[in-house]
């Protein structure tokens, strides 16, 4: 245990976009955050830092010492060639889960993505929000790696009694950058609220939740996250006028960007190199 209010979090991918928001927010709430990433950022703040690769079991074993909760964010965040996704996202996720079991860390919160279910169509969810129990419909190899993450989370919860929450994150940025992101936006402050709630929730077995703010136009079911204590306080609506003006026209429902949960990821092609 650390001597801070809530204990110690090991955060993989702590130097990335979501990690940068979360490590500051969670430290402010009273967590001791230990970052794990390939690089040390320019401003680590109060974060303890371990430079390492999630493919390196020995580095993970050392980093897991005295950890209460793992937040696993590391991995390629967009579509890429399968071999690279396999190494970083699939093998990397396996290594993190396995190291957590070896170290006896009881709880893992892990960054799944809306792209695990990205081929679901908005038209099918007009009457009720899309639930966490829909069939996986990954929209990319990246999305496939998130389905794997949810599967290994379920397996390790059943086999090892780990407490696992897979968060299907929407679009976590300072502001929504497109009309689609008015639906999918997760504000940095709500991201902190969400992960703090999941880290402190008393009863956790295996859970999947969606991670977005309280956006008026959202078509995702936030109840599973709310049941674990998440109270979103932001709404993308405050940016709607600005975003719509920049987009310069009404969305076309046939455009994959608006037709599918995963938007343009449904058309993403892995790079050649
Ligand atoms: C994700 O899972 C990606 O990591 C991120 O880059 C965003 O594109 C986000 O989804 C999204 O759907 O907007």
What does this structure look like?
α1 (17-29) packs across α6. β7, α5 (179-184) and β8 (185-186) form a beta-alpha-beta unit. 36% of the residues lie in helices and 16% in strands. It has one domain (7-267): NAD(P)-binding Rossmann-like Domain (Rossmann fold, 3-Layer(aba) Sandwich). The termini are far apart. The chain has a 7-stranded parallel beta sheet, with helices on both faces. A two-stranded parallel sheet has the order 7-8. By secondary structure, the protein is α/β, with parallel strands linked by helices. The structure holds D-galactaro-1,5-lactone.
Gist of the model:
With 273 residues, the protein is α/β, with parallel strands linked by helices.
CATH architecture: 3-Layer(aba) Sandwich
CATH class: Alpha Beta
Strand content: 15-25%
How far apart, in Å, are the first and last alpha carbons?
Answer: 44 Å
Low-confidence stretches: none
Which secondary-structure class do the elements indicate? alpha/beta
CATH homologous superfamily? Answer: NAD(P)-binding Rossmann-like Domain
Give the number of domains. Answer: 1
* Strand order of the biggest β-sheet: 3-2-1-4-5-6-9
Question: Helical stretch count?
Answer: 9
- The total strand number stands at 9
Q: Within the CATH hierarchy, at the fold level, what is the topology?
A: Rossmann fold
- The mean pLDDT is 96
SSE series: EHEEHEHEHEEHEHEHHH
Overall geometric form = globular
- Computed CA radius of gyration, to the nearest angstrom: 18 Å
Give the % helix.
Answer: 25-40%
Report the major sheet: 7 strands, parallel
The hetero molecules present are: D-galactaro-1,5-lactone
């Amino acid at each position: 245990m650390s001597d801070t209010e809530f204990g110690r979090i090991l955060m993989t991918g702590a130097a990335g976009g979501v990690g940068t928001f979360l490590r500051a927010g969670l430290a402010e709430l009273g967590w001791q955050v230990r970052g794990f990433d390939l690089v040390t950022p320019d401003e680590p703040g109060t974060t303890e830092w371990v430079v390492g690769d999630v493919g390196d079991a020995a580095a993970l074993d050392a980093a897991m010492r005295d950890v209460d909760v793992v937040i696993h964010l590391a991995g390629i965040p967009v579509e890429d060639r399968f071999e690279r996704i396999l190494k970083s996202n699939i093998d990397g996720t396996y290594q993190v889960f396995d190291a957590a079991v070896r170290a006896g860390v009881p709880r893992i919160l892990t960054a799944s993505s809306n792209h695990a279910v990205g081929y679901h169509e908005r038209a099918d969810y007009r009457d009720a929000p899309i639930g966490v129990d829909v069939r996986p419909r990954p929209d990319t190899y990246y999305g496939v790696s998130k389905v794997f993450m949810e599967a290994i989370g379920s397996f390790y919860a059943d086999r090892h009694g780990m407490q696992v929450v897979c968060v299907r994150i929407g679009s976590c940025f300072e502001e929504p950058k497109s009309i689609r992101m008015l639906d999918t936006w997760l504000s940095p402050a709500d991201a902190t609220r969400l992960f703090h709630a999941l880290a402190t929730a008393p009863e956790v077995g295996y859970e999947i939740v969606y991670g977005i703010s309280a956006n008026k136009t959202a078509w995702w079911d936030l109840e599973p996250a709310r049941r674990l204590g998440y109270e979103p306080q932001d709404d993308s609506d405050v940016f709607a006028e600005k975003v719509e003006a920049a987009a310069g026209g009404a969305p076309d429902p046939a455009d994959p960007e608006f037709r599918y949960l995963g938007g343009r990821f449904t058309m993403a092609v892995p790079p050649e190199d």
